[in-house]
Design a protein that fits this description.
The complex is a heterodimer. By secondary structure, chain A is an all-alpha fold. Chain A contains 22 helices and two strands. Chain A has helices at residues 2-14, 17-35, 41-48, 57-81, 91-102, 106-141, 144-156, 166-180, 207-227, 240-251, 254-269, 275-289, 302-317, 319-325, 331-342, 351-354, 356-387, 392-411, 414-432, 438-460, 467-470, 472-494, and strands spanning 183-184, 191-192. In chain A, helix 6 (106-141) packs parallel to helix 10. Chain A is globular and about 60 Å long. In chain A, 59% of the residues are buried. Chain B is of the alpha/beta class. Chain B folds into two domains: 35-130 and 255-321, Bordetella uptake gene, domain 1 (D-Maltodextrin-Binding Protein, domain 2), CATH 3.40.190; 133-253, Periplasmic binding protein-like II (D-Maltodextrin-Binding Protein, domain 2). Chain B has twelve helices and eleven strands. Chain B has helices at residues 9-13, 15-22, 49-63, 82-89, 104-111, 145-154, 169-181, 193-201, 212-220, 267-281, 284-292, 302-326, and strands at residues 38-42, 71-75, 97-101, 122-130, 133-137, 160-163, 186-189, 207-208, 224-229, 255-261, 296-301. A six-stranded mixed beta sheet of chain B has the order 2-1-3-10-4-11. In chain B, strands 7-6-8-5-9 form a five-stranded mixed beta sheet, with helices on both faces. Classes of the chains: A mainly alpha, B alpha/beta. Chains A and B meet through helix 3, helix 6, strand 1, helix 12 and helix 15 of A and helix 1, helix 2, helix 3, strand 2 and helix 4 of B.
């Protein structure tokens, strides 16, 4: 009850005309920033940070959170429309979002993304409101062994599932893991796999570069080949009827969306993880619990909803360790932390006790930001879909340019552009040979976390591998992981070993 | 890897927007002004002492309008700061990149051949010397240094000391402790001081040598306990915590908190940043922070700073050689 009273006071702040205007502004700006490949919420928040000095501190935080939220929604837009992830957190959204757009269901995919984002955002804010302080203790319970077990769990959801060849999936995971070791050793700092001292490789391979390469360029190459001159991209329509159909479709996905929300929130809460692993894991779990796993990657609407609920839920989740422990869970929350320090607020275990006005103002603004984001997003969908009407010959060139810009912008190194080109060709060939690309991206995202937590555990447990199963939390995760690995295998065997080669499209 | 989703993209398309955002121009040096947002590279991960400090500097700079362009902090903490060092090296003569340093500024290039010679970099300003304190979880029975040594001995080499990357400050202090007390400790490296602090409170490691700023929040909440400070005198914030020196163990270690630029940074830019940090060091916010978080503000610039760096590098080379001689890692 006390929580509700405090939240009520928070709403008194966040619903003032000035703050409402700020939310709308922030969300709209965030939406476009998120939709631009190469620009993410981090950039948005960083750019606006100085602006916040001209408004009162509470409004300033609301503005930052609105941009943060808006960008989370916006990331899905270019994932669906162009097949290029608009932000790192929206990589998983391309897996099914892009095929949907090609089938003329771009509007539906965008509605699914918006609604799923709203559901994920809202469920996680409610969790945040009710359990912020006790949940901080759960985040503390996660040591290196638990982190490793969780990552392992993420991988198993991608292995041995209906549609894809098990062996090919494992090959792709291994390839991704190898790519993730390029650069400086996480623990000792020695350079690894830098290919004869090529400076560009010291920074490692950014997974956004890989994702843009295999999904953006690779996809365009594949489309050009399969369609020769005039590809048949079904023109997307967006009418009120479509909208209604979208909402009805969403209504059938409560299981996927609530799973995605909880998973996203908890993974986002772990300082080492964040929204990108969360969205990939949600995708994997949605697929492995689905009745028709083979339809994933070919335009299944649940494949859009799952990662989108998870990444928004994770963005709220990552605020939790930032506020309660003073440890930011993502680059964007690190910037928010900087902003708070600027106003003389010290995040940490004492913040909730010493600064309740601030904390509850912030929490209530998450509700309003979420609400504003979904409304603005849906209102703008026709505009986004209209962009798809341009002829393929134009769109194709545009996507190529955006891929290069999106890859160049974060590092400003030509090295990354060459890598994108290389990954593009490799992605095209792998696709032709029917290798699944999602596990590759997943492995590159989670590889560093997996390696670090594995080595940390082994060091602290004197090389005892059993440490992973002896600890209750990590033991439980590993048990679930084993189950995920074995179950589909059993399913597969019972079907009498139906031909394992996925049918060609 | 996610952290590598850097903020640099902001530099690309939106410099003009940022210019608009900063509004009023700074009253600093008329001759040279940054033309785009200034990138502040941090040699450590998010949430640690270095990170918090860099973000505090960023806030003060923007609040007090000390720079005409926004400052964007970027974490490049991989490989004990090797990622950041390498990055600075690869951006020679860039006038819009400054790096917040730790002592890994000396140790990382000594330990690994990453092709970086810090003598080439441009020293800008040293802001402070940070302090180290031995911490245990508040649930632990350990109250004194003696208790701690006894517990480490009893563990038979399995005592888990968490810290930043191997060869970085925390591991050097740990090595000094091992040597002083003739004990053996298992050193577990984490990504940054914030991660280390969290793992101590979560009970995944047995002790840390965090900077006070990293444990302050948990200490105030009664979740961690300072045992001894590695400073010549007691810290004002922990008047009841003895120093190792007064307990008869001469372990004193500092962490420098400075800023450097890449090789051949234009002289006008160096002057601009030097003046910016000098103004910063005089602000009330900074002075308050140094008192609260037990930092020794000690401003140093130019050639004097370079001389200090080189002297410290020699000292650290000796400590590292000593560590490797012991066969501990």
């Amino acid at each position: 009850m006390e929580t509700l009273a405090l939240l009520g006071e928070g709403f008194a702040t966040s619903l003032s005309p000035l703050n409402l205007m700020i939310v709308i502004l922030g969300v709209t700006a965030g939406l476009f920033i998120g939709a631009m490949p190469g620009l993410g919420s981090v950039n948005g928040v960083a750019i606006v940070l100085p602006l916040t000095f001209i408004v009162p501190p509470s409004s300033a935080i609301i503005l930052l959170c609105a941009i943060y939220y808006g960008a989370m929604y916006g990331g899905a837009i270019s994932s669906v429309l162009l097949g290029i992830p608009g932000a790192s957190t929206a990589v998983a959204t391309t897996f099914d979002g892009r095929p949907m757009a090609q089938q003329g269901k771009a509007g539906l995919a965008l509605i699914a993304a918006a609604v799923a984002s709203f559901v994920g955002g809202t469920i996680s804010v409610v969790l945040f409101t009710l359990f912020a302080v006790p949940l901080a203790d759960l985040a503390l319970a996660f040591g290196p062994a638990e982190e490793f077990a969780l990552v392992l769990l993420a991988f198993t959801t991608f292995v041995g599932l209906g549609g894809d060849d098990v062996l090919k999936t494992i090959v792709m995971i291994c390839l991704g893991l190898v790519l993730s070791t390029v650069g400086l050793d996480l623990i000792s700092g020695s350079p690894r796999l830098v290919f004869g001292d090529l400076p560009g490789f010291y920074a490692g391979i950014s997974f956004l570069v890989l994702a843009i390469g295999v999904y953006g360029i690779g996809e365009i190459l594949y489309t050009i080949e399969t369609s020769r001159t005039a590809p048949t991209v079904t023109p997307a329509k967006i009418t009120l009827r479509e909208l209604g159909a979208g909402f009805r479709a969403m209504n059938r996905m409560w299981k996927t969306m609530s799973l995605g929300s909880f998973l996203g929130f908890f993974v986002g809460m772990l300082p080492a993880a964040g929204a990108t692993p969360a969205s990939l894991m949600a995708y994997g779990i949605a697929r492995s619990t689905s009745k028709v796993p083979e339809s994933f990657g070919k335009g299944n609407i649940e494949g859009v909803a799952a990662p989108e609920t998870a990444n928004n839920a994770a963005s709220t989740g990552s605020l939790l360790p930032m506020l309660t422990l003073g440890i930011p869970g993502s680059p964007t929350t690190a910037l928010l932390l900087g902003g708070m320090v600027m106003w003389g607020l010290m995040p940490g275990p004492m913040l909730f006790i010493e600064q309740p006005d601030f904390v509850w103002g912030l929490i209530s603004s998450l509700y309003t930001a979420n609400f504003a984001a979904v409304l603005i997003n849906i209102a703008l969908i026709p505009l986004f879909v209209w962009a798809l009407r341009m002829p393929f010959t134009v769109l194709c060139a545009l996507v190529m340019v955006l891929c290069i810009v999106g890859g160049f912008a974060p590092s400003q190194k030509m090295h990354d552009v060459w890598l994108i080109a290389g990954f593009g060709v490799a992605g095209y060939l792998l696709r032709k040979a029917d290798y699944p690309l999602a596990p590759l991206v997943l492995a590159l995202v989670l590889g560093p976390l997996m390696e670090r937590s594995f080595r940390q555990t082994l060091i602290s447990e004197q090389g005892n591998v059993l440490a992973f199963v002896e600890r209750p939390l990590s033991g439980a995760f590993i048990a679930i992981a084993a189950l995920f690995f074995v179950l589909p295998l059993v399913k597969y065997l019972r079907k009498g070993g139906r031909q394992s080669v996925a049918p060609a499209e | 890897m996610i952290n590598k989703m850097t903020r640099r993209a902001a530099l690309a398309g939106v410099a003009s927007l940022a210019l608009l955002a900063t509004g009023a121009t700074s009253a600093l040096a008329d001759s040279w002004k940054p033309q785009k947002p200034i990138e502040m590279v941090i040699m450590a991960g998010q949430g640690g002492g270095a990170d918090r400090l860099a973000r505090l500097f960023q806030s003060i700079i923007q609040k007090e309008n000390l720079a005409s362009m926004p400052v964007l902090p970027v974490n490049k903490g991989g490989g004990s700061g090797a990622e950041a060092l390498r990055y600075l090296k690869d951006n020679e003569a860039d006038a819009h990149k400054i790096m917040a340093t730790l002592n890994s500024y000396y140790t990382t290039p000594i330990r690994n051949d990453i092709g970086v010679d810090i003598e080439e970099f441009t020293p800008i300003a040293r802001m402070a010397l940070d302090t180290f304190v031995l911490w245990v979880n508040a649930d632990s029975d350990i109250q004194t240094m003696e208790d701690w040594v006894a517990a480490v001995k009893a563990s038979g080499g399995e005592w888990k000391m968490g810290g930043t990357g191997t060869g970085q400050e925390d591991s050097l202090v740990t090595a000094m402790l091992e040597k002083e007390f003739g004990i053996k400790i298992t050193y577990v490296p984490f990504k940054g001081g914030g991660d280390v602090a969290k793992n101590l409170v979560g009970g995944h490691i047995d002790s840390t040598v965090n900077n006070p700023s990293e444990q302050m929040g948990f200490w105030q909440a009664g979740k961690s306990r300072p045992i001894a400070a590695f400073t010549p005198e007691r810290l004002d914030v922990f008047p009841d915590v003895p120093t190792a020196t007064e307990l008869g163990h001469d372990i004193v270690y500092w962490m420098q908190r400075s800023f450097v630029g890449p090789k051949d940074m234009p002289a006008e830019a160096v002057a601009y940043y030097t003046e910016m940090f000098e103004k910063l060091s005089e602000t009330a916010e900074w002075q308050q922070y140094t008192t609260d978080k037990a930092l020794m503000a000690d401003f140093l610039t130019g050639d004097e700073l370079q001389a200090y760096f080189l002297e410290e590098r020699a000292k650290h080379a000796a400590i590292l050689a000593d560590m490797e001689g012991d066969g501990s890692s």
